[in-house]
Design brief:
The protein has helices at 17-24, 39-47, 88-94, 107-112, 117-125, 128-136, 157-169, 214-220, 228-234, 259-270, 291-299, 314-328, 330-333; strands at 28-30, 50-51, 54-55, 57-61, 75-78, 81-84, 96-99, 139-145, 152-155, 175-179, 182-187, 198-203, 222-224, 254-256, 286-287, 301-305, 308-310, 334-335. It is an alpha/beta fold and 338 residues long.
Length: 338
């Protein structure tokens, strides 16, 4: 099946720095003028890039000793070895995250405490220590463990927005099929230069009301997608010439939600209860306030080194989105109403 997608909505090279400078001219919030720039300063600028009622371009400095999107000089201890987080690949493999549950959380606890995803996002991400961790640190995403397989899932802040936007843009082009609590969909591809779609599978959906199984099914929800982003995060790093590729953070594999798979989750959630669509018993969070900083980082933010400018990398943007969430709080950034 061939599906024509329009990846311009998610193109990290558009608009170009030249186009942004032509559009905004001197209307720029230049953070390089700040002494002692903090993560809170940058988060505030990205959340509200306006001056005199007009939207501004945000220029974030990236020079040694001034400011950095994530701590390139830091390292983590993994299996007795220090792994430097000096590349996007290592950051996304070994960087820190905020986890919603524990690896050994029993099924009974999900039921007793009614541990729904929106409730945990609010309680865990809204906890003072985790807000501080997201704002002042470099967090690669929000994680949780599957209570049955003990497999770790990871949802990056940018994927929360982009998956949702993907579901909205391509709703009519997404072909949903259901098999009990599983959903399969043919979706457009966001891979550059590719016109055929992807077959995405998501197992399982939180739709089983028998014995309140939905209260832990959401944590078992597992994505399967063959896109380049999903492949890069889970497999391709093993084939790169890197001395740390044989070091893995988890004893069992980790699964990252990509934009396609999270789009299918949100798409299925919005179809919940329609004819031939199972009804979600609990809801996953959807982006609200997080959309604005995502748009700012993608369309009106430049990284300044001396007199040279560039676009933020995707890893830099997702870390900054996590800091924005730590700065404003999850209830501002996400729809967490039960």
């Amino acid at each position: 099946m061939t599906i024509k997608a329009y990846p311009v909505h998610f193109d990290t090279s558009s608009p170009t720095v030249t186009e942004m400078r032509e559009r905004y001219g001197s209307n720029v919030i230049d953070l390089s003028a700040y002494r002692g720039l903090t993560h809170a300063d940058v988060a505030d600028a990205v959340l509200s890039p306006r001056r005199n009622g007009r939207k501004c371009c945000v220029a974030i400095p990236c020079e040694s000793g001034v400011y950095d999107f994530w701590d390139h000089d830091s390292a983590v201890r993994v299996q007795g070895r220090d792994v430097p987080l000096d590349s996007a690949l290592r950051m996304m493999k070994f960087g820190d995250e905020v986890n919603l549950n524990h690896q050994g959380t029993p099924l009974s606890e999900y039921k007793e405490k009614e541990m729904t995803p929106r409730k945990l996002f609010l309680e865990v991400l809204g906890a003072e220590k985790n807000m501080k961790k997201m704002l002042e640190g470099s967090v690669r995403g929000i994680g949780w463990w599957d209570p049955r397989s003990r497999k770790h899932r990871l949802l990056s802040p940018d994927v929360i927005v982009e998956g949702q936007k993907f579901a909205e843009f391509y709703e009519r082009q997404m072909d949903f099929r259901y098999q009990r609590a599983d959903v399969y969909a043919t979706v457009p591809s966001l891979d550059s230069g590719r016109e055929d779609g992807h077959e995405v599978g998501v197992r399982v959906l939180p739709v089983t009301d028998a014995d309140d199984a939905f209260l832990y099914e959401w944590a078992m929800t597992s994505p399967s997608c063959g896109c380049l982003d999903s492949f890069f995060r889970s497999i391709s790093g093993k084939y790169m010439d890197d001395e740390f590729v044989d070091v893995h953070k988890y004893a069992r594999p980790e699964e990252h939600f990509c934009r396609h798979s999270w789009g299918v989750v949100i798409g299925a959630q919005r179809r919940s209860g329609r004819q031939d669509s199972p009804e979600f018993m609990v809801k996953f969070p959807e982006a609200t306030g997080l959309i604005a900083p995502w748009h700012t980082l993608g369309s009106s933010t430049v990284v300044k080194t001396g007199n040279r400018y560039r676009r933020p990398t995707r890893t830099e943007a997702r870390v900054q989105l996590g800091r924005a969430m730590g700065y404003a709080g999850p209830e501002v950034m996400l729809d967490l109403a039960e």
